[in-house]
Amino acid sequence: MKNYSPIPGVIISFSDSAWQQSLPDCEGLVLQVMEVAIPFIPFDLRGTELSVYLTDDEEIQGLNKDYRGKNKPTNVLSFPQGNVPKGPNGEVHPLGDIAMAYETCLREADHEGIPFKNHFIHLLIHGLLHLLGYDHENEEDAEKMETLEVQILQALHIPNPYLAEES
Question: According to the annotation, is 130 in a ligand binding site?
């Protein structure tokens, strides 16, 4: 049996170099977020893999239109690949894909008056939780998801973004 890392394998790809200019250690940041998030997640993610695709508004608008029927850019999209992981089974299996749009994320961070890096991290966590089956379709589910997001963000020393929205 293979000895799997508790952290999912992460494949990061870029179609917009603005991400690397704004967050030069983007790859390291994604791995750091995963390391901190794992203890908060009630699933065994050993032997899993996810991809993070950092793109622009134009491309994410196309994805949003094709997969959600919404012809507008959005900040983050998650594409789960099957069931929530149950533990290693001898093979690497994908959790899914997270796609993020640079311009929308930057606009939102500027509008909310928060550092771009903090907003990126929040949206990355948000996308990861969607891959694991969390959603915010009703108040109860939204509260569970937001509570978990805030706990992970606090562990990364990032203020609660939902408090900023309320004020």
Answer: yes
Residue 53, phi-psi category: left (phi > 0), alpha (psi -120 to 50), beta (remainder): beta
| Total-model pTM | 0.89
Q: Contact 78/97 with Cβ under 8 angstroms?
A: yes
Q: Is the pLDDT of residue 6 over 70?
A: no
Q: How far apart are the first and last CA of the chain?
A: 52
Task: Give dist(CA 127, CA 66) in Å, integer.
Answer: 18
Structural domains of the chain, ranges and CATH numbers in brackets: 9-166 (3.40.390.30)
Residues 128-147 have pLDDT tens digits of 999 988 999 899 999 999 99
Q: What is the CA radius of gyration of the chain?
A: 16
**Cβ-based neighbours of 50, under 8 Å, separated by 6 or more:** 8, 9, 10, 11, 94, 95, 96, 97, 98, 128, 131
Torsions phi, psi for 146 (to 5 deg): -65, -40
Q: Which uninterrupted H or E stretch holds 77?
A: strand 76-80
